[in-house]
Design a protein that fits this description.
- By secondary structure, the protein is mainly alpha-helical.
- It is 67% helix and 9% strand.
- The protein has 2 domains: 55 residues, Winged helix-like DNA-binding domain superfamily/Winged helix DNA-binding domain (Arc Repressor Mutant, subunit A, Orthogonal Bundle), CATH 1.10.10; 43 residues.
- It is built from 4 helices and 3 strands; from the N terminus they run αβααββα.
- Strands 1-3-2 form a 3-stranded antiparallel β-sheet.
- Strand 2 and strand 3 form a beta hairpin.
- Helix 2 packs across helix 3.
- The chain is elongated, with a radius of gyration of 29 Å.
- The N and C termini lie far apart (61 Å).
- The model has no long low-confidence stretch (mean pLDDT 89).
- It holds the Pfam family HTH_24.
Length: 106
């Protein structure tokens, strides 16, 4: 997801300050409080910020996804064996196809 430059600016402000009130944000980015609140709501809708009932904004904590390496390796091994099996089947079908072509020409 690509953010507009204005929304990126707001994210950077929040990264630097930790949190900010919508009215203070409006002063900082030189827009009306209504416009600043609209930006805040858009970022909230995108799941990037949290806003309380008083208009205080903060970055939403991003959860790191846990990757089970063992499970991932097992899945990869399974797919690799399936691919090898399919390649073998394809080669067998090619051989059969060549035999049929030769019979058709004879």
């Amino acid at each position: 997801m690509e953010l507009t430059p204005r929304l990126q600016d707001i994210i950077n402000i929040l990264k630097n300050k930790g949190n900010i009130n919508v009215k203070d944000l409006a002063l900082e980015i030189k827009v009306s409080p209504k416009t600043a609140k609209g930006y805040a709501r858009e970022l909230q809708r995108l799941g990037l910020v949290e806003m309380d009932q008083d208009g205080n904004l903060k970055l939403k904590e991003q959860k790191e996804e846990h990757v089970d390496k063992e499970k991932l390796l097992k899945t990869l091994e399974n797919h690799e064996s399936e691919i090898a099996s399919l390649k073998k089947e394809i080669e067998e079908i090619k051989v059969e196809l060549e035999k049929l072509k030769k019979k058709g020409k004879a």
